[in-house]
Design brief:
The relative contact order is 0.12. By secondary structure, the chain is mostly beta strands. It has a 7-stranded antiparallel beta sheet with strand order 13-14-15-16-19-20-21. Strands 7, 8, 9, 10, 17 and 18 form a 6-stranded antiparallel beta sheet that branches. The protein has a 4-stranded antiparallel beta sheet with strand order 3-4-5-6, with no helix packed on it. It contains 2 helices and 21 strands.
Length: 323
């Protein structure tokens, strides 16, 4: 922002830096001093990369030091207040090697692997991540980005998509349930084609956490273009990812002609993409141990395998095989 600088002399200093938290300077009588970030529940020392006091919920993460920041993984996790959040990822990707008209696709199936922007291995056309803490009734602003778009003759360019969280509400009851509900949206277009339509995804969430019962209830409904493919994930304290749901590319091909982005993406579409409701069981350390849906119980691995086995494309005689 104009007039705000961390170094220029004679200007107002911006104190809100790492994690969006205020950097507080403390000077001692001997002329020495220190700078600590105020993370609400405790103070963070940037010089040693640790908090000065222990995590008040350290009993949930007994395998970790109570002084670390974001379980030593600040790329995947954000710690908004010095306590524990759930990371959520939503991604739109093109499963094909070629995304039509010479554009390169992501050449993959449904995956729990982290994205390129998170130090991982898989790419997406648009992706969004944020963290939610039902017990505190808080969330972080979403980070929305894209991997580079490529064309056989047009070269490479990276889009700048937009995203936000709206209608965030939180509540608690006498039974130990902490509930948050909110909407997340993102939109991003092919940067190599001026005026190209956006990929639009809109997801409504309700999360109900009960730490005493060891449960996290998840309900999600997703709408948008229904093209290309989308996947929604939630993570635990060890960084394990679990599918909330997946959405195939609908109408990607029919028997008469191929339907691509210019047929599916234009307009503010509200096509049904994904709807799911289930309960995650969690141990005392905040690690996912299983999934319950109706009268059926799944291991985390079996649940993810079931999601990955779903088709990537509807109305396609030869859907792209997951891998």
């Amino acid at each position: 922002m104009s007039g705000i600088s961390s170094s220029a002399a004679g200007t107002l200093k911006n104190k809100y830096k790492f994690g969006g938290k205020e950097l507080q300077s403390n000077e001692f009588s001997d002329g020495s001093g220190m700078e600590l970030y105020d993370f609400d529940a405790r103070n963070y020392d940037q010089q040693i990369g640790r908090f000065w006091s222990g995590d008040r919920k350290a009993d949930k993460l007994v395998e970790w030091s109570p002084y670390v920041y974001a379980v030593n993984n600040p790329i995947l996790f954000v710690d908004p207040d010095g306590e524990f959040p759930y990371p959520v990822h939503i991604r739109s990707f093109a499963p094909w090697k070629s995304f039509g008209l010479g554009f390169g696709g992501d050449n993959r199936g449904y995956s729990t692997a982290l994205g390129k922007g998170e130090g991982g291995t898989v790419t997406s056309r648009v992706q969004q991540s944020f963290t939610v803490d039902p017990s505190k009734g808080t969330h972080t602003d979403p980070r929305t980005w894209s991997d580079p778009s490529r064309h056989a003759w047009g070269g490479e360019k990276t889009a700048t998509p937009t995203g936000e969280i709206t209608d965030f509400k939180s509540s608690t009851d006498n039974n130990g349930n902490s509930t948050v509900s909110f909407n997340s949206t993102y939109a991003g277009a092919n940067p190599l084609v001026p005026g190209s339509p956006n990929i639009d995804v809109k997801t409504s969430f309700t999360l109900v956490e009960n730490t005493k019962a060891g449960t996290l209830s998840v309900t999600a409904t997703q709408k948008g273009d229904a093209y290309p493919v989308a996947e929604t994930l939630i993570g635990d304290t060890k960084g394990n990812q679990l599918f909330i749901g997946v959405s195939p590319a609908t109408g990607a091909q029919d028997t008469q002609k191929e339907l691509g982005p210019f047929e599916k993406l234009p307009g503010n579409n509200n096509r049904a993409m994904m709807s799911n409701s289930f309960v995650i069981t969690i141990d005392q350390n905040g690690v996912f141990t299983g999934v319950k849906q109706g009268d059926k119980a799944y291991s985390v691995a079996d649940w993810n395998k079931m999601m990955q086995a779903k088709p990537l494309v509807k109305n396609d005689e030869k859907p792209y095989p997951p891998r």
